[in-house]
Amino acid sequence: MRTRPGDAAPEPIRARGREDVRGGAVEFTVGDMVIEALGSDGDDRAIEFLATPQGAEAPAVFVIHREQDWESARLTVDPHSGSIPVAAVEWAVEFAREYL
After folding, report:
1. Strand partners for 25
2. For the segment 14-49, what is each residue's pLDDT rounded down to a tens digit?
3. Which of the residues 7, 27, 46, 95 could staple to 41 if both were Cys, CB 3.0 to 4.6 A apart?
4. How many other CB atoms are there within 10 angstroms of residue 49's CB atom?
5. Model confidence, pTM
């Protein structure tokens, strides 16, 4: 995955990030939630995200896939995730546009 520590989404989203050197994941704090970008599928066509709002028991898990161009991108949600904060999806889309 082509990420660097401190990468953040464009304004107006405020995010602080760090790279987890153990697994190559990137973790960001956006508002009161933590979002982890776990990497790609090896072909740089998908990034998995875990969004954990403050007080949540488990993270919401979703993946953004890009086949050929951004217009064909898709969002896949883990059926066990429950609801996903819109701010997490908005941030993940901006992140995916940059790195997919």
Report:
1. 20
2. 344 444 333 457 888 988 999 999 876 556 688 999
3. 46
4. 24
5. 0.72
In sequence order, what DSSP letters do the residues of 47-74 get, joined into one string?
EEEEEEETT-SS-EEEEEE-SSSGGG-E
| CA-based nearest residue to 63, from 53, 49, 51, 73 | 49
Per DSSP, the three-state class of 11 is coil
Count of other CB atoms within 10 angstroms of residue 30: 22
Whether the bond into 85 is cis, omega within 30 of 0 = no
Q: Determine the Cα–Cα distance for residues 26 and 4; give it in Å rounded to an integer.
A: 8
pLDDT in tens, 40-97: 655 668 899 999 999 998 999 999 998 888 888 999 999 988 889 999 999 999 988 8
Cβ atoms < 10 Å from Cβ of 7: 17
